Amino acid sequence: MKMATIRDLAKRAGVSPATVSRILNYDSTLSVSDETRKRVFQAAEDLNYSKHLSKKYQRFSGKTAAIVLWCDPEEELNDLYYYSIRLGITERLTELGLKHELLYAGANWEELDKYAGVIVIGSDQYSAGQLSILRHLPVPVVFVDSNHLQDGFPSVYSDFRSAVEEIVDHFIQTGRTKIGMLAGDLSDHYDKENLPDFRFRNFKRYVQAKELYQPDWIIVGAFTSESGYEAIKLAWPELAEKPNCLLVANDAMAIGALKAFRELHVRVPEDVSMISFNDTTVAQFANPALSSVKVETNEMGKRAAEVLLNRLEQPDRLPYALQLLTKLKLRQSSIN
Question: What pTM value is reported for the model?
Answer without folding.
Answer: 0.78
